[in-house]
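Structure tokens please, single chain.
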Amino acid sequence: MSNEVRDLYREIVIEHSKRPRNFRKLESVPAAEGYNPLCGDRVTVYVDVTGEQLNDIAFEGSGCAVCVGSASMMTEILKGKSREEAAQIFDSFRALVTSGAQVSCPPALGDLVAFAGVRAFPSRIKCALLPWETLWRVISPPHPDPLPSTSSGQALGGEGTHFAPSPSGPSTPSRLRS
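Here you go.
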């Protein structure tokens, strides 16, 4: 990847972190919270689901540019998709940010390829995946460990990542940090 392309992708992530899309609370829909205590990222993901269709996705929270940018881009790319399509895009995105080997980027990822460089920074992988893992907790069928596992068998959230159902009380969006 050329330096110009890398810079363009970096700008896309920064733009989404400074002006996140779908940064709002959706009322009366399923939600989950994700927290990475190692970095301080905290997100609540809301999903309006009808049958297999993800009608609307939004998020609130605070985190680094990688986490907020990932959440913003996730909401844009998955809105209107089926659960199956969302799972395929999630698998592709996870492979993109975790694979040590070069992976092909399916067209379905669109601008999410901006996160390809994250794999070079292991501590940032959790930042990029936190919104996705939190979304997965909302849309996956209930079973003991609904989060897909890495090839090593470790659940994606990994050690130190916490997930919880969203509290039913009102929430106020936290100020984003860069």
